[in-house]
Each structure stands twice: as C-alpha cells, then as structure tokens.
C-alpha cells in the first residue's frame, strides 16, 4: 500500500502532499482502487459508533492496516478478487463492521461487476463517502448499490431512504436510480425516499438543482428548486413544498408535525422493518405532533403516542408484528 494513503486519512500530509497524492490517484487505476478501498473502509469503521467516538474507528483502522501489512496471503487474496468483489455491510446496532468476500469461484464474475452494497439494519443509519467525494447518508432499512470507482457515468441505486451531498462535476451528472424513477444532479444536496413497501417515491431538494424523471421519459421529467419536494405515485409526478424537519433523520431524529397516524405508522414500519396492523380504522385518523430519537425504538415511540390517543399495543416477536387496537 502507498504509505501516503494511510497518512492522508490521518491528516498527516501537507496540502502539497495531499494534492500530489490525489493527482497520482487520478492517473493510476490501481492506486485509485486502493484509495477508494481505504476511503470507504475508514468512513465505515467510524460509523460503527454513529461517529460519536472516532478514536474507536481509528483503532479499528490501525488494526486493519496492521493485518494488511503482515498477512501476505491475505493481500494476495484481496488482489485476486479485487476490491470490487467486496460487499460491505455495516451493522451499526452492535457496532460491528462485517466484510463478506466472494468465494474464489465467484471472483471472476465479481471482478467484472464492480458494484458494492451497503445495507443499514432496521432502526439504524449509516454514512458513506463515495470515490468521487459524494457523501451519502442512509436511513434505516436502506440499501445502496454503488461502484468502487466511477468510470464515466456516476450512477448509484437506492432502495429505502438516502440523503446525497453530491460532489460537483459539470462533465458527469450524478444519477440516483430508484425502483421507479431516476434523479439527476450535477452538484447538489437532496433526499430520496423509495422503500419497496412504500406506495410512493419522494425527492426533497435542499440545495442546488435536480431533475426527476421516469427512465424512459427523461425529457418529461420535472426540475426541482431548493425547498421543493417531488412525489411520484403511479405514473404521476407532482411538486410540493418540503418539510425541512424531515431531513433530521440524518441526525437520528424523527419529527412529526400534526401528521395522521396513518402516515406515521407507515414510516415507522419502514424505518424499523416491522409489520404494523391496525384493527380499528379510526386509529389511522388520529393526529400527532412530536419529535423522537431513532434510538428510542419503535415501542417507546408508539407508547408515547398511546398516552395521548389511548389505544392498545400488542407485539408478536415471532411474526415481527405490532397490532394496534381500541
């Protein structure tokens, strides 16, 4: 490994040395992949503690560097399957970072398919820095498929909810693909909600400009301005004013401002990956105003709402269900 990469992430390089390294990374495909590997690794290790204690992340990073320097066979195996073969899964709830590498017989296939995957479990969130410098925050129960190195088009695929702070590059738009629509940006900050069980997709723009469209009808897409939210249902695209508080999920905060329980329950079910069954339809019409921390957990959140609206809560762990009734 180029020792400058290690020093880069410890901020031990001068400005001139940093620029020199980045120029070399841009000129060398091998160095570019190595840099991307450690860039993502360092970010993910720090995520293990919700970025609350970066000392722990640095200790894990040091251990990983030590292992790579002393395990020759390990290094050869990494070279064989390539960084592109790694599927990165962060389990934030237990602060464990797990690497799953392909079996040798899968290596040839995955060396051509350079996509990586980051998944966040229910009730947790994560952050990732992509190779081009784009920052991504993933909400609970979400998945991001992304290349280790962007060659040409910058495209990722999102399932769930993510916030993107896109690195500026006028020559290469950044595209987020969802289950139904694509969102294209040059350099901007926006949020995308696209859970598989959701009946809609939402795109909220904080800064810059983005275009949302159906892949086969890009010319008919809609361009958003800061403060606007696009809602896609079926074959329709509609612009609305966004609620800025909804972006607080990046900090682990869920805000509900006079929302019906129907909406709140739907979001909680997605965030915590649990089926919520409502026996009495009138419960869905209740309204609630409040703010919760993600770490409070779904049962605590529901019990706080229960104190106001007085419904019953039953949880079935085996079926992964929560039943609300009068």
UniProtKB/TrEMBL annotation:
The entry's keywords: Membrane, Transmembrane, Transmembrane helix
Chain ranges of the FecR protein domain: 117-211
Sample GO molecular function, one term: sigma factor antagonist activity
Any Pfam family the entry gives: FecR_C
Keyword Transport: no
Transmembrane segments: 81-102
Domain named Protein FecR C-terminal: residues: 254-317
Organism domain of life: Bacteria
UniProt name for this protein: FecR protein domain-containing protein
Stored InterPro entries: FecR, FecR_C, Ferrdict_sens_TM
């Amino acid at each position: 490994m180029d020792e400058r990469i290690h020093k880069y992430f410890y901020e031990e390089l001068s400005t001139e040395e940093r620029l020199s390294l980045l120029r070399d990374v841009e000129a060398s495909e091998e160095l570019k992949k190595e840099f991307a590997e450690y860039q993502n690794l360092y970010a993910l290790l720090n995520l293990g503690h919700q970025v609350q204690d970066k000392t722990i992340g640095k200790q894990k990073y040091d251990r990983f560097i030590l292992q790579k320097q002393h395990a020759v066979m390990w290094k050869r195996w990494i070279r064989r399957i390539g960084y592109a073969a790694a599927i990165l899964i962060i389990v934030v709830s237990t602060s464990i970072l797990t690497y799953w590498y392909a079996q040798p017989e899968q290596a040839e296939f995955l060396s051509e398919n350079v996509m990586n995957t980051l998944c966040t479990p229910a009730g947790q969130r994560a952050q990732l820095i992509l190779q081009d410098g784009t920052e991504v925050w993933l909400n609970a129960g979400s998945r991001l498929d992304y290349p280790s190195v962007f060659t040409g088009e910058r495209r990722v695929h999102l399932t769930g909810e993510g916030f993107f702070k896109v690195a500026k590059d006028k020559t290469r738009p950044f595209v987020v693909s969802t289950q139904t629509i694509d969102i294209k940006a040059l350099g901007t900050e926006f949020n995308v909600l696209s859970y598989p069980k959701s009946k809609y997709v939402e795109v909220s723009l904080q800064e810059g400009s983005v275009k949302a469209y159906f892949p086969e009808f890009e010319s008919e897409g809609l361009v958003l301005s800061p403060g606007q939210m696009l809602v896609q249902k079926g074959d329709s695209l509609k612009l609305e004013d966004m609620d800025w508080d909804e972006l607080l999920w990046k900090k682990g905060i869920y805000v509900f401002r006079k929302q019906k329980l129907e909406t709140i329950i739907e979001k909680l079910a997605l965030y915590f990956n649990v089926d919520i069954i409502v026996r009495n339809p009138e419960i869905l019409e209740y309204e609630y105003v409040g703010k919760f921390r993600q770490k409070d957990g779904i049962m605590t959140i529901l019990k706080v709402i229960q104190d106001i609206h007085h419904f019953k809560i039953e949880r079935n762990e085996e079926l992964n269900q929560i039943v609300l009734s009068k």
